[in-house]
Amino acid sequence: MEQNFQEITVEQLCKVIDLLHPCMDDYLYVYDFINDFYYISPHARQRFSIPDNTFRDVVRTHGLFVYPPDLEPLQEDLNELLAGERSFHNLEYRWLDLDGQPVWINCRGYVVRNKEQALYMIGCINEIGARQKADNVSGLLGSSSLQAYLHKTPAPFPEGFLLRLGMDDFKEINEKLGIEYGDMVLRQTAECIARCITPSQKLYRVVADEFLVLDFQGGTYQEAGKLYRQIQHNIVRFVEENHYEAVFTISGGILEISNIKDFAYTNVMKLSEFSLNEAKRQGKNRCYRFQEEDYEQFLKRKKLTQFLRQAVYDDCKGFEAYFQPLFHADSNTLYGAEALMRFHSPDGNMISPGEFIPILEETGLIIPVGRWMLEQALAACKKIASRIPDFRISINVSYVQVIKSDIINDIVAAAARQEVSPSNVIVELTESGLLESNPHFTRLLAKLKEKGIRLALDDFGTGYSNFHYLHDLRPDIIKIDRSFTAKALANDYEYNLLDLISGMVHTLNLNVCVEGIETEDERNRIQHLSPDYIQGFYFGKPCPYQQFTEQFVTVSH
Ligand code: C2E
Ligand code: MG
Ligand code: MG
Question: Which domains can be identified in the chain, with CATH numbers?
């Protein structure tokens, strides 16, 4: 380009950008090297976390919104331009969006010079990641059209609702019947939905297998529910007419406009996504109505998940091992301790395992935290076993650890490191449907026996009690859960049932541990059932190691 562009001033270019920017989705910019000044199309502020659409101190300010790993290549490219090695800038890298998420852009620009001196660069930024305006598979408008429409609508939005629809298990259709078939199903689903809506309602395809119906015409929750059921009905008919080749259902999340406080696009999308996810979480093929309390609960859980993740990252800081004594029921002497996990969240609360263990299991974090816990429990066992050689440490193991990690190896390695004999270790497994005929468990049981580690079946009497387990798993100990103990203490029928069960367990030569004994009276009544071991607040609550040794080890030995 050998023209006299240097005659055009930066002010004039900014005016041209102001004139052109409403006509395009891309972002025009000018970078004035002389005054260290940057100007970009004003609508870039609605997409990226830039401080303003005009700023100075250009390189340092880019540090605020360029995805950090991409800063170095950008700097190198700029250096080459300024050194006069090239005049054309063409770089694909990432900027951060308003949520701080990286977004791929292609930034191109031309450097205008006066002789050798670089005066300014003018160019355009295009998004190159997927931001679909329209979707040719479903024939619907895509999420960026929805975004543009919502942007145009002044807040607060008119009364009405958003119904977000998601196909259940769509991935399976693609996997089993191929992508082309999947595309056909998507198209048909879009048609099923389109047939149900009124001309004033709008329909978009938001992501892969999700659609959104927008009603700004005062549609009520009841009307949204009715619409969902009609769509559900149409899907069933499609599946039937298609001779059950692809059997699938659809879930829906209803968000009433009156429930929205922050009308920013990202927030509205978050709430509608949450609503759909709730419908799926509650069992799919159903509709969920957004409720503020549920969302707050969800955010609380999300925050706790972040705390847990951070704690794992910080070498399990915040986790603590507690110990609860287990006694021989006949002699009242200490048999061992159950190691129980505690979590002190950074906001000062102590969270109950009932709340955080399911999150650790869901996220897989139970694997690293479980290893940490093993180390704590075995270190404690080693110290106590130097005074009470047959002291047993009972460790809770989650099914996730069994299925997704080499738990036996972890136990054996930790026992070797802590110089604890595997015969001092008891593994507590919770009985649940998952235990049944799962090859992971069969292998685990064989290995436990081989290494001389004992197995306790935890939570016996809750939910899934199945006498097959006693035969299949051959546990050494059956732990009767507090809920069963409490029922047996309150009710003759349950008491007799517990009596029968312990009798049967004893005839199989297995041991019974009764959990959850809180008073002397309870202890006396349970004593009639001749349990082998007993555990409960009456004998001692779970407590830190130091307290445990002072209370139960030093005293008796
Ligand atoms: P669990 O293994 O059945 O542990 C016994 C629970 O009963 C403990 O609750 C204990 O504090 C409580 N308990 C004991 N005696 C009494 C009593 O007399 N009255 C009452 N009301 N409760 C009593 P905790 O510590 O809240 O633990 C809850 C559950 O969390 C445990 O049930 C276990 O399933 C799980 N858990 C705890 N620590 C770990 C761990 O390190 N790993 C895994 N995978 N799960 C753990
Ligand atoms: Mg237990
Ligand atoms: Mg238990």
Answer: 2-127 (3.30.450.20), 134-290 (3.30.70.270), 301-556 (3.20.20.450)
